[in-house]
Amino acid sequence: MDLSALRADRALVSCLAEVHGEDALLAGPDGERLPALYRRLSMRDPDSLLGTLKADNRVFPDNSPELRALQASCPKLWNGPTYVLRGFEDDGERLSCAEGRYFDAVTTCFELRSELKRAVATWPGDPARAWQAMPRRRALLDGRAGGAANDWLWRGDGRSASLSISCLLVVAEHAGHCWGVARRADDVGDDPGLHHVVPSMAFQPQADAPAGGYSIRDRLLRELAEELFGLNEGADWRDLAPLRDLLGRLERGDARLRVTGLAMNLEDLRPEILTLLLVSDPNWLASYRNTMRLCRIEYAVGETGLAPLEPWRSSGLERSMPEAFRRGRGTVSGSACVALGGPVLAEWLNAGG
Questions:
Q1: Which phi and psi angles does 36 have, rounded to 5°?
Q2: What is the Cα–Cα distance from 166 to 163, expressed in whole angstroms?
Q3: Per the domain annotation, does 294 fall within a domain?
């Protein structure tokens, strides 16, 4: 990343810190502040995070400059169904969700991101003036700042806060461990050209899935089958040999899946469910590595999807951000997934897992 882009990234974080408080921003393993709020969690059953699915009758703009630009530049764009954040259940732990549409997220959340980046580019050294150049964001927060603004954002009000899922996939091999990471294709709608953890996905309904697809675990495993093993759209991921094998390992305990936290991307005010999947038996990778085929729709040609876990070996695991995410080369949600999943991964590996 060139120095001008790095300065722009720092200016954006500085501007957000003025509104949300620097201490509230997620600290990456290298100590740098990321433009995200976070909630640390540790849930052995990912679906225990989900509350009852509710109706959402809100109406959002049906067009916007951001949507028109995306439609012109990204032929893959479609108005698919999404799950959106509507706050927390009364227990304060489980997510309250509703069904939305992707274009609603574009005309609300994506517009907020564009406004933020334009303002920061115009006033990179003056957070106060940049803030005044963001009328949509100021209207949304309605005078809230600091903790009041941060708490309010988790309610999902004022926008179609579509949920995503990121997975920190770590797989044992006979020489150590490797992890899922790849550079996103240059023609995708979100974060083109940046590195992201693999698998990652929108959390969205699936008509052919049990309960309509309202399951973090099933959505994650399906995306793993699609992004790393080339599963065709509409096919049943449970019929794929590596996924059947993985399901058995999850039941036996030589693979583990856990929610490690929630991140709120302050660029577009969309939430991300952060998960960690560790496959501790190297025989799984040895058996299926030759069948892996990274999804070319999402990721750049030439990417393999798995990389050696060199930057995180031994005690450096909790402190060192992998090179792919340093100096602004990675996505915010991917960095958050690494930051919140790293300590849990270190605990598992140090325990011999």
A1: -155, 145
A2: 10
A3: yes
In a domain, 24, yes or no: no
**Which amino acid belongs to residue 196?**
H
Spatial distance between the Cα atoms of 292 and 304, rounded to a whole number of angstroms: 8
176 is a domain residue: yes
Res. 47: pLDDT tops 70: yes
Is residue 110 a contact partner of residue 137, using CB atoms and an 8 Å limit? no
CB atoms within 10 A of CB 31: 8
User: Is position 60 within any domain?
Assistant: no
Neighbour count for residue 117 (Cβ, 10 Å): 13
Average pLDDT, stretch 8-16?
Answer: 88
Residue 231 pLDDT > 60, yes or no? Answer: yes
Distance CA 28, CA 17 (A): 15
Model pLDDT, residue 94:
95
Asked if residues 53 and 86 have their Cβ atoms less than 8 Å apart, the reply is: no
pLDDT of residue 183: 87
Determine the Cα–Cα distance for residues 120 and 10; give it in Å rounded to an integer: 10
Assess whether pLDDT exceeds 70 at residue 109. yes
Q: Average pLDDT over the chain, rounded to whole?
A: 88
Least confident of 101-105, 167-171, 205-209: 205-209
State the pairing for strand pair 255-265/195-197.
Answer: unpaired
The amino acid at 19: V
Phi, psi of 97 (to 5 degrees): -125, 160
CATH number of the domain bearing residue 254: 3.90.79.10
Structure tokens at 278: 């560790």
66-71 contacts, C-beta under 8 A, 24 or more apart: 66/106, 66/107, 66/110, 66/111, 66/114, 67/103, 67/106, 67/107, 67/110, 70/106, 70/110, 70/189
Domain residue limits at 224: 164-350
pLDDT for the residue 251: 94
Total domain count, the chain:
1
Burial 267-282 (b: 16+ CB within 10 A, else e): bbbbbbbbbbbbbbee
Taking the complete model, does pTM exceed 0.90, yes or no?
yes
Q: Is the pLDDT of residue 316 over 50?
A: no
